[in-house]
Amino acid sequence: MTSYLHPFDCRWANWEFHVGFDIRASTVISMASVHDGDAGTWRQVLYRGFVSEIFVPYMDPEEEWYFHVFMDAGDYGLGASAFPLQPGADCPANAVYMDGFYANADGQPVKAENAICVFERYAGDVAWRHTEAAFPGQLVTEVRPDVTLVVRTVVSAGNYDYTFDWEFKTAGSIKCVVSLSGILEMKATSYTHVDQIKEDAHGTLLAANTVGVYHDHFVTYHLDLDVDGTENSFVKNTVVPRRNTGDPATGGADTPRRSYWTVRREVAETEADGQVNINSGGPADLLFVNPSKKTSVGNEVGYRLIPAGATASSLLSDDDYPQRRASYSKKQVWVTPYDKSEKWASGLYAEQGTGDDNLAAWSRRNRRIKEEDIVLWYTLGVHHLPYQEDFPVMPTVSGAFELRPSNFFERNPLMRMKPPGNPNFPNCSCHI
């Protein structure tokens, strides 16, 4: 496994993609394709992906605090808040670094030095394994270690620090991880002990005279997927329980089994069908497929969305002013047809936004999304209840999601991977 890295263009293992930088979004990943070793060709996965918005409403309605509501990308710019990474601390010793550039208010170029780092992660994880013990007197074990490529940016948006990782896996997956750290927004109080609190303090007493206010973090990604081409569809697979009727005509069988489950497949026709709250007990699998491309046995090639923690959605009322600005935060998944003017979930001008120009407003047009060039908007959400360990600087807490190939390859794409006994393994490196 070999790799090379040119500034802003990367080919590593079975991936190639472009790394960009934006004053509002910070790191932008585009033109991501994965190599299909069996077919001997490069295949499209992601046309462009970036963090579109970070919505942070605080939960204290009092006079001095009710306005503490932030749109970190739209109000301040994530790229403008990306400061130099610290070698050996923010990124490991084998990392390489990239500078970002953007234009300031006068149109002059600004250099964001060491804003992005790229490194290989080889930390003892397993790519695939199996032990076969069925042979008498013989134990057969095959294991392949997991090596991934990480593209990292850290954004210090005021008091909070967000670490954004794009992780490319040799199994064909793209994993996005958000890690939160930094300093809580705290409120002065007369309380010195929790026994003194007789009413809602809107937070946690972290130290004498110091309350860490309850708040949310909603990090919304814009992911313009091109799964083996641009004409994609959104599929919701829902697990449905069934009783065994004993009749094969209704899916049953003449056996003692009394129950089983099966899958109900729904192809989203319009934007209204493309909205999902993943906490509501809905679909088990959310897929993005190319109906015009199929495997040798007839399955539509696709990628599926796998949430990995941080799945909170907004609890604010729809008529509350912060919620009107970020009305999309009630659901984690939105799917829209591609429109080059629809990049920012909070609207083009977030600071003065009223909710008339945002992701939820666009989706009210209920446009067609079946067999179209479609965009996935996914929101990682955290209800942050502060604890004393978060004070004075909080340890990182993370959430993630993964885009994983699903019938995209004919078989496990790592079957060609050499076992670790090979003297050339691992043979991965990145350099500018």
Automatic annotation (TrEMBL):
<dbReference type="GO" id="GO:0009308">
    <property type="term" value="P:amine metabolic process"/>
</dbReference>
<dbReference type="InterPro" id="IPR049948">
    <property type="entry name" value="Cu_Am_ox_TPQ-bd"/>
</dbReference>
<comment type="similarity">
    <text>Belongs to the copper/topaquinone oxidase family.</text>
</comment>
<dbReference type="InterPro" id="IPR015798">
    <property type="entry name" value="Cu_amine_oxidase_C"/>
</dbReference>
<dbReference type="Pfam" id="PF01179">
    <property type="entry name" value="Cu_amine_oxid"/>
</dbReference>
<feature type="active site" description="Schiff-base intermediate with substrate; via topaquinone">
    <location>
        <position position="160"/>
    </location>
</feature>
<feature type="domain" description="Copper amine oxidase catalytic">
    <location>
        <begin position="11"/>
        <end position="414"/>
    </location>
</feature>
<dbReference type="InterPro" id="IPR036460">
    <property type="entry name" value="Cu_amine_oxidase_C_sf"/>
</dbReference>
<dbReference type="InterPro" id="IPR049947">
    <property type="entry name" value="Cu_Am_Ox_Cu-bd"/>
</dbReference>
<keyword id="KW-0801">TPQ</keyword>
<feature type="active site" description="Proton acceptor">
    <location>
        <position position="72"/>
    </location>
</feature>
<keyword id="KW-1015">Disulfide bond</keyword>
<keyword id="KW-0560">Oxidoreductase</keyword>
<dbReference type="GO" id="GO:0048038">
    <property type="term" value="F:quinone binding"/>
</dbReference>
<protein>
    <recommendedName>
        <fullName>Amine oxidase</fullName>
        <ecNumber>1.4.3.-</ecNumber>
    </recommendedName>
</protein>
<dbReference type="GO" id="GO:0008131">
    <property type="term" value="F:primary methylamine oxidase activity"/>
</dbReference>
<keyword id="KW-0186">Copper</keyword>
<dbReference type="GO" id="GO:0005507">
    <property type="term" value="F:copper ion binding"/>
</dbReference>
<feature type="modified residue" description="2',4',5'-topaquinone">
    <location>
        <position position="160"/>
    </location>
</feature>
<keyword id="KW-0479">Metal-binding</keyword>
<dbReference type="InterPro" id="IPR000269">
    <property type="entry name" value="Cu_amine_oxidase"/>
</dbReference>
